[in-house]
Amino acid sequence: MCTERDRLIDYVYNECDAGERDRMQRHLDTCDECRAEVTSLRSVREDLLAWDVPAHESVWRPFAPAPVTVWWRQVPAWAMAAAAGLVIVSGAAGGAAVQAFMPAQVIAQQATTGNVAATATPVTAADLSAAEQRWLATLREQVGAVDARVNGASMRTQPATFSPDNHEALVAELQRLQGLNFKLVDVINNINLNLDGIRAENDLKTGDIKTQLKNLQSLVVSQLQLK
Amino acid sequence: MDCFNQLVARWERPIYALAYRTLGREEDARDVVQEAFLRAFRGLRGFRGDAKFSSWLYRITLNLCRDWIRRERRAPIAQMPEGVDPIDVADEHVSPAESVEDLVARQEMSSAVSRAMAELPEEQRMAILLKEYHGLTFQEIADQLNCPLSTVKTRLYQGLSVLRRRLERRQAEEASLRRATWESSS
Questions:
Q1: Which of B33, B59, B74 is a domain's end point?
Q2: Cβ separation of B5 and A47 shorter than 8 Å?
Q3: Residue B86: is its pLDDT beyond 60?
Q4: Does B64 touch chain A if contact means CB atoms closer than 8 Å?
Q5: B182 shares its domain with B105
Q6: What's the confidence (pLDDT) of residue B177?
Q7: Within this chain, do residues B181 and B109 fall inside the same structural domain, yes or no?
Q8: pLDDT tens-digit map of A148-160
Q9: Cβ neighbours of B107 in A, within 8 Å
């Protein structure tokens, strides 16, 4: 048997480098035994091509897409609770602030007219009540607007652009809710700023009223003394 | 998940062919292919990116085929189902470019090859399948079968030599059968 036979398989399957291939071709030119073996191996390889695989249907059933759920069920419970809590807290804070500091609003309104320091006018119960109603209405309007936006975002059905497997849409929705939360915080901060201003004006006006009362008292006393 | 479905669509055909030629029975091949893809899906996280997806899939399929053969304790089946005439099959699959006679001859050769392959030892059969029908290199086959490169070459050479002898013997038998038929009819 030819000693080169072991290398024939590399040559038949063309898995040898160019040099080895050239060397084997030169050998085949001179070795009848190996040449016949190569012819025979190529012939059986051709026969192997006849082996068909019968036609078949796909055996794999593609995975179904994830079941569709209402989008807000996918928002984490903590996020929904936080949003709801923020709305309640802002409402409560606004209400409390109004109850505590509403009378000062009247004084603040007078201060804006520019006649506070010069001539203080007596404050009646009807004025206070009216001012309180106006302030309450303004606060309700501000808080209600934000509240409506948050509730609208929470309660509405799936937006047209949203799909359950669209993570980008979910993230955008959460960012929008976060934006609303920031706006709520802004409203609360504004309320606090207004209250600070009102307190300062209130203190100023109280001092003026006390001065006027003292002046009035002195006037009454002097008139009584004259009599 | 969608990506995995696309991978399956890409590789289902060759994987099925490997399973069918290894096991020789359509139902078995279907079961093995389904199991192979399920295992691939479950093991996707453990799949190392340094190996080709196809190599990994081949390995899973070959292991399942081996398990199947051992569990069933039987050699691959390689014969035309009973009651099926090759000419009937040829009638269904004939194309304008191929005569019915050629198609029948091809079907008979296909059947003969599958029978001859089924009789080969498992190691030789696997090496020939991976080389001839899936185009793997010697080294890739060695990796798939966990054996040295030289062993792959030896198995291939021996397997092809055995196949050649069996197919030549079959051709000789058919030739003598045709001659006998012709002599009896004339």
A1: B74
A2: no
A3: no
A4: no
A5: yes
A6: 82
A7: yes
A8: 665 655 544 444 4
A9: 52
The CA distance from B36 to B151, in Å, is 26
Residues in chain B within 8 Å Cβ distance of A48 = 113, 128, 132-133, 163
Which chain B positions have a beta carbon within 8 Å of A50's beta carbon? 106, 109-110, 113
pTM given for the model = 0.54
Residues B69 and B110 in one domain: no
Nearest to A27 by CA among A45, A6, A47: A6
| B111 and B66 co-located in one domain | no
DSSP-derived secondary structure for B25-94: -HHHHHHHHHHHHHHHHHTGGG--TTS-HHHHHHHHHHHHHHHHHHHHT-PPP-SPPTT--HHHHHHHH-
* Nearest of A126, A48, A138 to residue A94 by alpha carbon: A138
Q: Are residues B51 and B5 in the same domain?
A: yes
Whether residues A53 and B16 touch (CB distance < 8 A) is answered with yes
Structural domain that includes position B132: 97-186
Q: Are residues B37 and B110 both part of a single domain?
A: no
**pLDDT at residue B97 tops 50:** yes
ipTM over 0.90: no
What mean pLDDT is predicted for residues B100-117? 84
Q: What is the pLDDT of residues B173-184, one digit of tens each?
A: 877 887 888 888
What digits encode the pLDDT tens for the residues A87-140?
A: 677 666 666 655 555 555 554 554 555 444 444 455 666 776 677 667 666 666
Closest residue in chain A to residue B17, using alpha carbons only = A53
Per cent of chain B over pLDDT 70 is: 83
Helix %, strand %, coil % of chain B (to 5): 80, 0, 20
**CB-CB: which of A9, A45, A48 is closest to B153?**
A9
Note whether B104 and B69 are same-domain residues: no
